[in-house]
DNA sequence: TAGACACTCTGTAGTAGGTTCAGGGTCAAG
DNA sequence: CTTGACCCTGAACCTACTACAGAGTGTCTA
C-alpha cells in the first residue's frame, strides 16, 4: 500500500494553494480522490504526478482547456503525439504574437511619455493632450494575456 | 445647440461595442448622459472626446482604475501633471516586466517543443514526459496580463 | 473529559473587463 | 398596423482562481 496524504500536505509539497487543488477537481482536471473516514481527501502518487503535470503546463501559461486536451492525450498512450505538437505550436504562436504586441505597446508608451519630460500644470500636459487626440489603434488587449479573445476585425 | 447622437452612432464612430459604453457609464468613467423622450441616451461631443480618451488608454493597456485616475487629473487642470508622469512610468514598468516574462516563457516553450521533432506514439512523447517531470518554476502567470497580481514568492 | 487549535469540508461570492442574453420598449417606413 | 432596426434594464456568463462563512474532524494538552 502506497503512502497517502491529505490536501494540505499535497498543497505544501507542490507549493500550490489548497483551494486551487479543489478547483482543479471541480473542473475535472483531477479525478475525485479517495476519502478518509472523516471525509478528507486522500491523495496518492498518481494524483500528485497528475497535479505536477498540470502545474507545469500552467507555468507555461496554457489554459485549463489546453491542459485538459494534453491530459486526455496523455491518458491515451496508443494515440500519436502529433496533436501534442500541434497544440504546443499553436500555443507558441500565441506567445509570439503577444510578444510582438507588447513590443509595439512599449514603443508607444515610451513615445507618449516623451511628451512630458518637464512637469507642468496638467491643463498643459502633453501626455493628457496626446491621449485625448491620438488616433486609436485597435489592437487586441495585452491584458487579455496570451490567449486573447478575438474582438473586432 | 450642438449635435447629439445616440449610443449606436457613438459606438459605430469609435468602433466600440455598445455594451462597453454602457459598462463604462456603470463604472463611472463616463457621466450619465442626457436622455431622449424615449429614454435613449443622447451624447454630445464632450462625451465623445472623453470616451476617445478612455479608448486610447485602454489601447495602451491601462486598467480602468488607472484611467479613472488620469481622468480625474484631466478634470483638475490646476493640478500638476507629475502624477500623470508617475502613473505612466509605473505602467511602462509593468509592461517591461511582462515582456521579460514572455521572453523567458517563449524560450522555455521552444526548448520543450524540441523534445519531440519526430511524432511518435504519445506514450513515448518527449514533450509529455518533460511536462510530467520538469521542475516547476513558479512565476507570475503571463495570462494575468500586464497587471499581474502577486501570488506567492 | 474538555478545551484549544489546526486542518478540512461544502457552498457561495468576488475579481477584471467586458460579452451575451432575456424580455421588453421606441421609432420610422411601408 | 406591422415589420425591423434600434434601444432599455438587469442578470448571467467568461477565466482561473481567491476568499470567505459556517460547520465538521483530529490531535494535543490540562
Please render the helix and strand layout as text.
The structure is a homodimer of 153-residue chains.
Chain A: E1 5-6, H1 7-14, H2 18-26, E2 34-35, E3 41-43, H3 45-59, H4 64-74, H5 82-113, H6 126-133
Antiparallel strand pairs in A: 1-3, 2-3
Chain A binds a DNA duplex (30 and 30 nucleotides) through residues 6-8, 17-20, 22-23, 27, 36-41, 58, 63-65, 141, 143-145, 147, 149, 151.
Q: Can you walk through the features of this model?
A:
- The structure is a homodimer of 153-residue chains.
- Chain A is 54% helix and 5% strand.
- Chain A is mainly alpha-helical and 153 residues long.
- The longest helix of chain A has 32 residues, at 82-113.
- Chains A and B meet through helix 3, helix 4, helix 5 and helix 6 of A and helix 3, helix 4, helix 5 and helix 6 of B.
- Chain A binds a DNA duplex (30 and 30 nucleotides) through residues 6-8, 17-20, 22-23, 27, 36-41, 58, 63-65, 141, 143-145, 147, 149, 151.
Number of helical stretches of at least 4 residues of chain A: 6
Termini gap of chain A: 58 Å
Element-by-element helix/strand order of chain A: EHHEEHHHH
> Runs of chain A with pLDDT <50, length 5+?
149-153
> What is the C-alpha radius of gyration of chain A, as a whole number of Å?
23 Å
| Major sheet attributes of chain A | 3 strands, antiparallel
Secondary structure category of chain A = mainly alpha
Q: Name the overall outline of chain A.
A: elongated
Quaternary class: homodimer
The residue fraction in helices of chain A comes out at: 40-55%
Count of extended strands of chain A: 3
Largest interface: A-B, 70 and 70 residues
Give the rounded overall mean pLDDT of chain A.
83
Strand content of chain A: under 5%
Please state how the strands of the largest beta sheet of chain A are arranged side by side: 1-3-2
Amino acid at each position: 500500500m502506497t503512502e497517502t496524504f491529505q490536501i494540505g500536505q499535497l498543497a505544501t509539497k507542490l507549493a500550490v494553494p489548497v483551494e486551487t487543488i479543489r478547483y482543479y477537481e471541480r473542473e475535472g482536471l483531477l479525478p475525485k480522490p479517495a476519502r478518509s473516514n472523516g471525509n478528507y481527501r486522500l491523495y496518492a502518487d498518481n494524483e500528485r504526478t497528475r497535479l505536477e503535470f498540470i502545474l507545469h503546463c500552467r507555468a507555461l501559461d496554457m489554459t485549463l482547456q489546453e491542459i485538459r486536451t494534453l491530459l486526455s492525450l496523455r491518458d491515451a498512450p496508443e494515440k500519436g503525439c502529433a496533436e501534442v505538437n500541434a497544440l504546443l505550436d499553436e500555443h507558441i504562436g500565441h506567445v509570439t504574437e503577444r510578444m510582438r504586441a507588447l513590443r509595439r505597446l512599449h514603443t508607444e508608451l515610451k513615445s507618449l511619455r516623451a511628451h512630458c519630460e518637464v512637469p507642468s500644470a496638467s491643463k498643459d500636459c502633453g501626455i493628457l493632450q496626446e491621449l485625448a487626440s491620438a488616433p486609436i489603434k485597435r489592437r487586441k488587449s495585452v491584458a487579455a494575456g496570451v490567449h486573447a479573445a478575438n474582438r473586432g476585425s
